[in-house]
Write a structure and sequence with these properties.
This protein is mostly helical and 613 residues long. It is 68% helix and 0% strand.
């Protein structure tokens, strides 16, 4: 019968599944195995950690209830030392409860200990073991257990296959999950809503909403009606991928089928509308939600508050917070973090700090995100002493700074020229065990290069490479710009020329930086050649590209080529920036012969369209 289960491991592999718990080492520093050994070492008549109130079990109950996982270990220890031992059914109840608590590694430890004690597994406990392995991202071991089940003559059920499908989706192996689903159908199994919804969720997580919708249609054809959770999963995926019209179409479909949208469905659509600043649609959906008796939750309000704050509409966001309170919906820390961020973006640090201070009065504790928001606000406002003071306050309050905290402070220090402090913060960050990311390195490199500390910048660049981080094009842009700034054009040229060999493509910013550096040194022909090369290399020129070359030529009194590029710029739909416009106007005033003016307006169609900002 099992021609399609060749993906399962052989029986010789299945036994290894029971010995892998040492490899898991998940959860607490002290592994579940060592904890289990501690319990096993206890005198079997001693009932440490056991309390009659810590769990209940009656002959009629289907499961146990534990306050803590230690209670489960205590009961397991009691069970294995009881003579005669409880039946495998009782062990199954215990295991099921541990799995519901999401202590999958502990369940595996129990099952392994049972095997060592000669307690034979049944179909139910093997299903539990298979599910635990899948939940722990070890679907390979799950298939080993599957192979053992087949060798024991046990018939896999829908729960077995659903666990394997879920495990494959968790690991991102959605294509294999889909194949397994089809194999199930071929073998006569009828997947249920949970099985299909698991794959729909897996497809959406990898951004494949198109195939998720196809599966939705197949479900209906096979007589398995999708529910609102299935639809909401796809709507959320479509919204996140900016396919909002398709999401709205699916939304209309569910209403047409009489399936009432839930708060998650509305939240997904409201979020999408907020992201595209379609405030009328946001209001329409919100009003429709209330009319449909679908009560907005704190997430609904937080979505709108966050979007309004990012758009600079902090007063509107504040009004929504007040509405929440009036309706009895308690704002959470995310609500206040969004408000603080909104005030910081507007430079209203006093208001932001007032909100921050009010958080503790409302029974909430500021989190790392809240601290980072205010520190960033102070840094942007160049109030670095206050940023540092808050940094010390957060550590005193037991909030551990993260990479974002240090990167923000380093950026602020670099902006105000306190490079020694920025480097000290970088060193402190590394000493704390935090690993700088590509953004941290770019911030420090930019600060050093902008202040002419190119040698220190090159040293940091090499540290980044030795740490195993592959520099991106923006790191090279920073270095090339820094080298040009201090007159090391030769080294900048070499770095630019080596980009292709490193598998990197120069961006428009890279070209602009090099052209500016070449013009600065009077190497106009080389800069002009690079300007022409951009288009041949498939790099579209921007306004800065034209303005850089025009200023370079005008600065070196090459009016002819400056005029030529000015005309090209206008034809391309770009405008002269302020510096270029000032240079052109000054030249026109000094142009006693009128030669430059005539050259500038030689193409009448261009004359009317010259736009100087």
């Amino acid at each position: 019968m099992m021609r399609c289960w060749r993906i399962a491991a052989s029986s010789s592999c299945s036994s290894c599944a029971f010995g892998v718990v040492q490899l898991l080492e998940l959860g607490n520093p002290k592994s579940s195995v060592s904890l289990l050994n501690d319990f096993s070492a206890l005198n079997k008549n001693t009932l440490l950690f056991y309390s009659p109130n810590s769990y209940f079990s009656t002959a009629h109950s289907k499961h146990y209830v534990f306050k803590h996982i230690d209670d489960a270990f205590a009961l397991f220890n009691r069970m294995i030392h009881t003579h005669p031992r409880p039946s495998i059914v009782e062990f199954g109840k215990l295991l099921a409860t541990v799995v519901r608590m999401k202590h999958y590694e502990s369940a595996v430890a129990f099952l392994r200990q049972m095997k060592l004690l000669g307690i034979h597994h049944n179909f139910y406990t093997l299903n539990i073991l298979l599910n635990c392995f899948c939940r722990l991202h070890r679907t390979d071991f799950g298939f080993s257990v599957f192979g053992k089940m087949l060798n024991l003559g046990l018939q896999p059920d829908l729960i077995t296959f659903s666990a394997l499908i879920n495990g494959l989706c968790i690991q991102g192996k959605v294509a294999q999950a889909v194949r397994l689903l089809e194999n199930m159908v071929e073998e006569g199994y009828q997947p249920n809503l949970i099985t299909y919804s698991t794959i729909v969720n897996g497809l959406c997580k990898i951004g494949d909403a198109t195939h998720a919708i196809s599966l939705l249609r197949i479900m209906a054809e096979r007589g398995c009606a999708p529910n609102i959770v299935t639809y909401s999963t796809i709507i959320d995926s479509l919204c996140k991928d900016n396919h909002v019209p398709e999401a709205l179409k699916l939304f209309s479909e569910i209403r047409g089928k009489g399936i009432p949208p839930n708060v998650v469905t509305y939240n997904c659509l409201i979020h999408a509308m907020c992201n595209s600043c379609q405030w009328k649609e946001v209001k329409r959906l919100f009003d429709e939600m209330v009319t449909a008796n679908c009560k907005p939750d704190v997430f609904t309000y937080n979505i709108m508050i966050n979007a309004l704050c990012k758009e600079g509409k902090v007063l509107d966001a504040r009004d929504i917070v007040e509405t929440m309170v009036q309706l009895g919906i308690e704002p959470d820390i995310v609500t206040y973090n969004s408000l603080m961020d909104g005030y910081c973006l507007q430079g209203q640090m006093g208001q932001a700090r007032t909100v921050f201070n009010s958080v503790t009065n409302k029974g909430l504790a500021p989190d790392i995100f809240g601290y980072n928001v205010i520190i960033n606000g102070y840094s942007k406002a160049k109030r670095m002493d206050e940023a540092v003071e808050l940094f010390h306050e957060m550590t005193r309050n037991g909030v551990i700074p993260n990479v974002v905290t240090y990167s923000t402070l380093i950026s602020g220090m670099a902006q105000v020229g306190r490079l020694a402090t920025a480097q000290k913060l970088f060193e402190e960050m590394c000493a704390c065990g935090l690993v700088p990311d590509l953004i941290t390195y770019s911030i420090l490199l930019d600060g050093l290069c902008k202040h002419g500390h190119i040698h220190e910048a090159l040293g940091i660049f090499h540290v980044m490479q030795s740490d195993g981080l592959e520099p991106r094009i923006f790191h090279y842009n920073i270095l090339i710009d820094g080298l040009c700034l201090v007159g090391q054009l030769k080294v900048a040229r070499e770095l630019f020329s080596a980009l292709t060999a490193k598998g990197l493509h120069p961006s428009v910013y890279t070209y602009n930086i090099m052209m500016k550096g070449l013009c600065k040194e009077g190497l106009l022909d080389e800069a002009y050649k690079l300007f022409r090369k951009m288009e041949a290399d498939g790099c579209m020129r921007n306004s800065c590209s034209f303005n850089t070359m025009i200023r370079g030529f005008l600065h070196n009194n090459d009016k002819e080529r400056a005029t030529q590029i000015l005309h090209e710029m206008v034809k391309g739909g770009f405008s002269a920036d302020f510096s270029t416009a000032i240079m052109v106007v000054n030249l026109l005033f000094r142009d006693s012969t009128g030669e430059f003016f005539r050259a500038l307006v030689q193409n009448s169609e261009d004359y009317q369209s010259v736009n100087m900002e």
